[in-house]
């Protein structure tokens, strides 16, 4: 009973997060300028991270947590570098 | 282990996950629907703050109860995201402002470029 509740809500949450991923992808494809695409990429990695956390609960495994942490670290650095590139035209001066 | 999953845990974890996913979805829909970049930059922060917080809280709660010990390393992700999202979005907004000014778009001028009568008043840093 309780397992069924958890499974169904995880399933629904994953569908919602997948729709969020699609929405970010739409903005990334459509975004009129570079900063819109970078913003969409930022949202994309956050939603993918949350999807990984829900997968971790679903499979009762903690391995997904490490992937999510790695994703948060690398996504931060990536968005920072891209924003710096927009500002200056180069990443490392 | 999953056979004796308590009912209250399933309900609390489900509620947190569903609410978090819903908020994240709302943020992403805002990313698609809002009109200008300066409006859009506010939308996805909903997913990083409240949505992410609720989903990570659900994960911490679930593993704390099923593994019979305190599992709070999910909060590391939450703290990290809370610290880094303002930094990146601030930088991105400033880069966008810089590009718009370079192209002469209709954005507010720099604080230092205002007339002297206005510059005397205490003003916010952009």
Give your account of this protein's structure:
The complex is a heterodimer of chains A (93) and B (126). With 93 residues, chain A is mostly helical. Chain A has one domain: Helix Hairpins. Helix content of chain A is 86%, strand content 0%. Chain A contains 3 helices and no strands. Chain A has helices at 2-30, 34-58, 63-88. Chain A is elongated. With 126 residues, chain B is mainly alpha-helical. Chain B has 5 helices and no strands. At the A-B interface, α1, α2 and α3 of A face α1, α3 and α4 of B.
Question: Which key phrases capture this entry?
Answer:
heterodimer, A: mainly alpha, Helix Hairpins, 86% helix, 0% strand, B: 126 residues, 68% helix
- The DSSP helix count of chain B reads 5
Mean pLDDT of chain A: 89
For the biggest sheet of chain A, the summary is:
none
Percent helix among the residues of chain A?
over 70%
Helical fraction of chain B equals 55-70%
Q: What oligomeric assembly is this protein in?
A: heterodimer
Count of DSSP H/I helices of chain A: 3
Uncertain runs of chain B: none
Low-confidence stretches of chain A: none
User: Which CATH top level class of chain A fits?
Assistant: Mainly Alpha
Number of domains of chain A: 1
Shape of chain A: elongated
**What fraction of the residues of chain A are assigned to beta strands by DSSP?**
under 5%
- How many domains of chain B? The number is 1
